[in-house]
Design a protein that fits this description.
Structural class: alpha+beta
Strand content: 15-25%
Number of helices: 6
Largest sheet: 5 strands, mixed
Radius of gyration: 23 Å
Distance between the termini: 37 Å
Oligomer: single chain
Shape: globular
Order of helices and strands: HEEEEEEEHHEEEHEHEEEH
Length: 325
């Protein structure tokens, strides 16, 4: 029998703890991923006494979400700060001792055949924001006032990651809504483009890339958390890991767009003014929710929210069945 899991309404995170526990693919150390205060995720260590950890490395949890700082005698550290697969410079003595212990465990696991490290060289960014397991050849950037994050695919193919309470599986709804943003050229954060590879990116792009830009924080939050309008405020947990990662010009050089993508224009519709003389026979309820109207509407009427969701599901279904956009 399949049982649906729900999160408490006071919990800010949508990540089930059983799904947040894993091992670092670079060093094999057990870690726990938590939702960050800014909508991304971060792998944290177990708790340590706060007095032994530098203030800049301290993190604490509140209602399932990670925040910088400490709220008591104990705190956690970001795993990238102590991952033995990453080269660290100028670590405090007590933190350096932790890295040495983890390095010994990593070497023992490799020699015994219990762990095979990831082939690529690791940086703190790689460890903190691992790339999605499955990514498409085309990946679009979503921007909000200078903050850039890149998804696993084109924006129109983004799928909600929440659990559908009706099926217990991943929601079939899409995230994309053409009315919520537009393509714009945005500036690259030049602090991440040091070295020859970074200079080549700057020479090619002139420091600007094309991204799907949104002006509202709530919309950006919905996009970056990969949730459809139906699940953005629901207590349904995530079915899979969030697939957005911070955009890095060198790391994601292959996905930078040199020109504005076509085919994302808003459709012009004629404005329809509905005039009625007041309620006739009471209120009519939406066919799928509790919203209602006093206007005269046909049988099976949908409110604007449900109608929008229905159109989105239809578009997604047509793409998956090859019937067009």
């Amino acid at each position: 029998m399949t049982r649906n899991l729900h999160l408490h309404r006071s919990n800010y995170s949508k990540l089930l703890r059983r799904d947040g526990s894993t091992r670092c693919k670079f060093c094999g150390t057990p870690i726990e991923f938590f939702d960050r205060y800014d909508g991304t995720r971060i792998p944290l260590t177990p708790e340590f006494p706060s007095r032994a950890i530098p203030e800049r490395m301290r993190w604490y949890l509140h209602r399932g979400v990670a925040y910088p700082g400490s709220d008591g005698q104990y705190c956690r550290m970001p795993h990238p700060a102590v991952c033995p697969a990453v080269k660290h410079a100028d670590l405090p003595d007590k933190v350096a001792e932790i890295v040495k212990v983890l390095a010994v465990r990593m070497r023992q696991a490799i020699e015994s055949g219990e762990f095979t490290p990831y082939d690529e060289a690791a940086t703190e960014t790689d460890v903190e924001s691992p790339e999605p397991e499955e990514a498409e050849d085309i990946r679009h950037i979503v921007a909000y006032h200078g903050t850039l994050r890149i998804g696993p695919c084109a924006i129109e193919d983004l799928q909600c990651i929440a659990v559908d309470f009706r099926t217990g599986e991943r929601c079939d709804n899409g995230v994309y809504d053409v009315d919520e943003g537009e393509w714009q050229q945005v500036d690259i954060d030049t602090t991440h483009v040091a070295g020859r590879a970074g200079q080549m990116v700057l020479d090619r792009t002139q420091g600007r890339v094309w991204a799907w830009h949104v002006n509202d924080w709530q919309i950006a939050r919905r996009w970056w958390t990969q949730r459809c309008p139906e699940h953005i405020n629901s207590t349904q947990p995530d079915a899979v890991d969030n697939e957005f990662v911070p955009f890095h010009p060198v790391r994601h050089d292959d996905y930078i767009l040199d020109s504005r993508p076509l085919g994302y224009e808003r459709q012009k519709t004629e404005e329809v003014i509905v005039v009625h003389d007041g309620p006739r026979g009471g209120r009519t309820r939406c066919a799928t929710c509790t919203n209602s109207t006093v206007a005269t509407v046909p049988e099976g009427w949908l409110c604007w929210q449900c109608e929008k969701a229905a159109r989105r599901r239809t578009r997604v279904h047509r793409r998956w069945t090859g019937q067009g956009p």
